[in-house]
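testing teh design pipeline on a random one, pls ignore if ur not involved
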């Protein structure tokens, strides 16, 4: 069985996941903790090609879902499981819960079927800890526009979609409080990073380098 630690970062558009993932990675590097930084969609050569397609196209919801599932199956097989098996910490920008939030609550696809598809794609791999960066939809979309100068095909969905998405993450977090931790994503970058570190640090004891005995 995998012996590593899978930490996922979740949230709506413009919530700051990628920035916070990078800052957390820098902290782990300074502490000498072996880890892998990855994302969905993406994380593999196939995944990066699918990412370009998914973010640039207005796809039928089931088509979108199955492409995400294909990306996840390849990602788990080639990146996540090998890293966990090697005893590493995996920091993943989006994972199974994004499918439930986006395609389930956002697009309206049946949650039970999404759960089944997630299980097939991951072969049962689940996050140990999920960080939800809680940012209201209008704040996140404004940030995304400022950062990129334009919005991708998902970001340009109507506000109702993004409100349903936000409600989805909120519902998922409330339904599994042992795994999920809410992070207030509205304050400055450093303040958010400190919130995250207070949550993550207690999980890292087994992964910290042990002193050599003389």
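output:
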């Amino acid at each position: 069985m995998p012996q590593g630690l899978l930490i996922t970062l979740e949230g709506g558009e413009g919530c700051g996941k990628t920035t916070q993932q990078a800052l957390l990675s820098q902290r782990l590097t300074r502490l000498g903790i072996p880890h892998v930084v990855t994302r969905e969609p993406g994380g593999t050569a196939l995944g990066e090609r699918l990412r370009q397609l998914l973010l640039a196209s207005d796809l039928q919801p089931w088509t979108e879902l199955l492409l995400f599932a294909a990306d996840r199956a390849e990602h788990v097989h080639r990146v996540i499981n090998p890293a966990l098996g090697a005893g590493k910490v995996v920091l993943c920008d989006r994972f199974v819960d994004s499918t439930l939030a986006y395609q389930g609550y956002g697009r309206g696809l049946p949650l039970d079927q999404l759960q089944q598809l997630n299980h097939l794609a991951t072969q049962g791999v689940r996050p140990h800890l999920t960080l939800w960066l809680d940012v209201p939809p209008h704040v996140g979309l404004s940030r995304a526009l400022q950062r990129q100068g334009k919005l991708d095909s998902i970001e340009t969905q109507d506000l109702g979609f993004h409100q349903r998405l936000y409600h989805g993450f909120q519902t998922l977090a409330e339904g599994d409080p042992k795994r999920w931790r809410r992070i207030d994503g509205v304050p400055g970058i450093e303040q958010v990073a400190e919130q995250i570190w207070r949550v993550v640090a207690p999980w890292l004891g087994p992964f910290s380098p042990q002193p050599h005995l003389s």
